[in-house]
Design a protein that fits this description.
about 350 residues; alpha+beta; 3 domains; 12-stranded antiparallel β-sheet; 12 strands; globular
Amino acid sequence: MGEKDRNDPVFATDGRPRRRSWRLILLSSLFIAGLVVASFLYHDQLSSLWNAENDLGNRFPPGALADYIPEDSQAVLAVNVRQLVDSPAGRQQLTPVLQYLIHQAGGQLRWMDLLGINPLDDLDYLQISFAPAGGGDPLWLARGRFDRSRFQIGQDKLQEAKLDHFRIWEHIDRRAKRTTIVAPVGDVFVVSESGGGVQAALKQASNPHPLAVHNAMLRNLLPNVDRRQTVWVAASLKRLGSISEIEDYWLRLLLRPLVSHAERVYGGIVCADDVRADLLFRAATEAAAERLEMSLQNIRDLAGEGASLLVRQKELLHLLQLLGSGEIHRDGTTILLRCQVAADQLEK
């Protein structure tokens, strides 16, 4: 390298950085420092942009509807699907029950097929809120790992639309005269045939604020429920309506005395190495509590060994076995049903 190179401000070889080198170092340092400052000042905005491609839609953050219960709910049923599948007893014994109940829901869960959801593989959590008193349809919250490439978009499938300014999908079932709305909200899908229900969920996600369930009975039950259970329920039973539309005989048999004699219930099922269930019922009067106690005793006795000879749906057999282990305790108008079955005691 010649004298010309030695005197060049960039390519100097005498060991001393020239002016242009210092300028480049200074500019690079300022640029890096600017990025660091921006990352601190605009962390939330940058995270939002970074996660935009992973968001299901509408760019809500994950957990935007965590613990959301619609204000008009009369009853809430939730399944921690991942806990159910991952537990030894749950995976082997109670996942068939969940599959059967999903199958019984029929056309109401067509949206799962259109979103390419395999419930046991893709769902982490499923919550259903019922509001029949106002003529509303159930509102579903489905959280899990969803693959956009499996979404079925098009004619007679999911069609993109807008609800207010939010992005949604609609599935129009012309034969059943039913329209199902699917709204992506952060890490969940909100699904209902009620536009008002979906709209309320979207508004809560966009402007979070404390909510109070209108039904005082349900509002008082919810704080008592351990939502970490595999399955949990809280229900004001007085306004849930008729169970005559339920096709399965055993489901009607199990639910009829609850709807007839109890006014509220809460509790759940825990699946680990065994299966445990605790349900606390409250009746309006002691006479109704006596009838409910007798009905639960009859169901427990029927759900024993004789049930396996009568039940056609083998998927329900393990649920009946669980009920057959029940202990029933009544204190005035309150009745506790407690069941526990070890995994090796459940029939295969």
